[in-house]
Amino acid sequence: MRKPAECETMAHIRAEIDRVDEDLVRLFAERTGYIDRAAQIKVGADLPARIDSRVEEVVQNVRRHAATYGLPPELVEKLWRRLIDWSIAREENHLGPDSLRKG
Q1: Cβ atoms within 10 Å of 80's Cβ, excluding its own
Q2: Burial (Cβ within 10 Å: 0-12, 13-18, ≥19) of residue 68
Q3: Pick from 10, 71, 25: which is nearest to 2 by CA?
Q4: Is there a binding annotation on residue 91?
Q5: How do residues 13-62 score in pLDDT, each as one tens digit?
Q6: How confident is the model at residue 94 (pLDDT cuts 50, 70, 90)?
Q7: What is the DSSP letter of 28?
Q8: Domain spans of the chain, in order of start
Q9: 96 pLDDT exceeds 80?
Q10: Neighbour count for residue 78 (Cβ, 10 Å)
Q11: Which CATH number does 4-100 carry?
C-alpha cells in the first residue's frame, strides 16, 4: 500500500485505486449483510423498509463524515441517497413494498 504522495507512476496510482475499489466493494457487501438482517428484523417488528427519520439520520452522519475527511458533503449525500434507495429496494424484496404493507 502506497500513500498518494508515494506513487511515482500511473501504474502505482492505478494499482492503489484498484485496491481501494476492492476494499469499497467489500465494505458495501458487509453493509448489505446488515441491510438483509434489518429486513429480517423488520418483518417480525412489522416495520416498513423506509423509515424517513433513519434515512435523514444516515444522511446527516455521512455529511459529517464527508466534512471530516475533506470531501464535499453535497456530493457524498447524493451518493448515499442512491445507496439508501438501493438498500430500501433490497429490503422491500424481503418485506414487500411499503405501500402494500399494513400500517
Answers
A1: 19
A2: exposed
A3: 10
A4: yes
A5: 999 999 999 999 999 999 999 999 999 999 999 999 999 999 999 999 99
A6: confident
A7: H
A8: 4-100
A9: no
A10: 12
A11: 1.20.59.10
**In this predicted structure, what is the pLDDT of residue 103?**
44
pLDDT for the residue numbered 101: 53
Q: Give the global pTM.
A: 0.86
Give the pLDDT confidence of 61-85 residue by residue, as tens digits. 999 999 999 999 999 999 999 999 9
Question: Residue by residue, what is the 3-state secondary structure of 34-87?
Answer: HHHHHHHHHHHHCCCCCCHHHHHHHHHHHHHHHHHCCCCHHHHHHHHHHHHHHH
Cα–Cα distance for residue pair 77/60, rounded to 1 Å: 8
Q: How far is CA 85 from the centre of its chain?
A: 9
Tell me if 22 is assigned to a ligand binding site: no
Cell numbers linked to 41: 428484523
Residue 64 is assigned to a ligand binding site: no
Look-up: residue for cell 511515482?
8
